[in-house]
Structure formats: structure tokens, C-alpha cells
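Recap slide: Ferric siderophore reductase C-terminal domain-containing protein, sequence and predicted structure.
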Amino acid sequence: MASSVPPIILWENTAVRIYSLFEKKIAELELPNCKKEQAQADYAALLALSDGANFGEAYNPVARFHTPLRQRNDNNGATRMRHTCCFYYLTTGLPKYCEVCPRSMN
């Protein structure tokens, strides 16, 4: 089954979830330090992969979207600005974009 959603949006959605898993969720788990260190090493290795062939792409789509964190407008932590719009606003019926949506900057 094919989708009309551009692959770049799907890759960024995937990357955002990977970042959240490694940067937030694993840190919250009660794991031995050796397990947390292994997770950090795995994350660094995933981002360092330069051969896009590992992903069936010409570039590493997970690393492509890994930009510096910025302070949220509500001062409730930090987040990354998205490069693509995920179209979530179309599912809510609200004419409002996410705080990290590039469309919100226009």
C-alpha cells in the first residue's frame, strides 16, 4: 500500500521518535549505568552513520534532522524545530500549527 505522504516527512517523523526515545525515555528508566552508556553509544553510532544505504537512502535520514535543541516558548524544556510539517493540524480540525512546525514561522 503506497502513501502520498512524502518520504522526507515520514523520515522526520521517525527521527523525532528516535530522538525522544534516546534523549528522554531511556534517561527516565531505572537502568544500570552500563545500560544507559550503551544506549548513548548506540544513539551516537546511529547518528554517525554516514552511509545512507543503511536506510535505503542517499543520506542518513535520522542524522539529517538532528539539530540543536531550542528553548520552548512556554519555557517547559527544549525541543527541535521541525524541517517539515507533519500535517497533524489537519487531523485536529484546528487551524493551528504545532509549536515546532516550520509553517508556524511564516
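The mean pLDDT is 88.
The chain has four helices and two strands.
(End of recap.)
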